[in-house]
Amino acid sequence: MRQGIPFSGVVWWPYLDLNNPGAEKQMVGFDVTSDAPEGVVISVGYRQSDRSIRTPDYAVPDDNLNGNMIGMPVTAPSLDLRLTFAPDQEWEFFTANLYINDGRRG
Description:
By secondary structure, the protein is mostly beta strands. It has a single domain, classed as Jelly Rolls, CATH 2.60.120. It is about 0% helix and about 50% strand. The strands form two sheets. A four-stranded antiparallel sheet has the order 1-6-3-4, with no helix packed on it. About 15% of the residues are buried.
């Protein structure tokens, strides 16, 4: 009988322009809700021309909706949120919130 090969689970939203294409967005933080015993690793991409340019990976517990966001300041015309779940665990993703300062006038 063949053994399976462990692989990570990934949920990824590439290039969120947040209803204002081309304008700089300032993300101040995030929170995420999931069911994952080993937690989840978050990173944010901030250059559309190169998907490898992103924040360092940041490990969070599976549910951090405790009334406080996790601070992660990133400024870019579009953002890309990636959640990576460790192999060999059952996981379920529920929600992610990005906290954005909207600098538009008017």
